[in-house]
Amino acid sequence: MENNSSLSFLSQQLLDQIKKTPLLLGYFSFPECQVCKVLKPRVQDLVRQFPPAEYLYIDINLYPVLKGQFLVFTVPTLILFREGKELKRFSRHFSLNELETFLTRITET
Question: Do residues 66 and 10 make contact, with C-beta atoms less than 8 angstroms apart?
Fold first, then answer.
């Protein structure tokens, strides 16, 4: 297990990546979530279809600071960021079609 200072450093690195990436989908979850395990590869595949969007998995058990900062209360939570600013949030009950529709709309502009 990593110590608190290295976890803080990694949390800051993830936060920096969220802020500097032009379009990023943050997938907030934890390993024990069975629904998340099934959904995760499907979301990754979908995001790959929409360059320049990037995908970032965030384990909320490892990075509770990010969980708190982005107000993640349930999993899975997907947050689409544009240069660190939240564009759209999908939590718990959503369809991949909803996500695809939104990605289509924002990558066409």
Answer: no
Segments making up each domain of the chain, as ranges = 4-107
Could you read off the pLDDT of 7-63 as tens digits, one per residue?
688 888 999 999 999 999 999 999 999 999 999 999 999 999 999 999 999 999 999
* The two three-digit tokens of residue 88, written as one number: 């759209």
How buried is residue 62: exposed, middle or buried, by Cβ count under 10 Å (0-12/13-18/19+)? middle
CB 9 within 8 A of CB 92: no
Please give the CATH topology (third level) of the domain spanning 4-107. Glutaredoxin (3.40.30)
Check the CA dihedral 67-63-58-16 and report its sign. positive
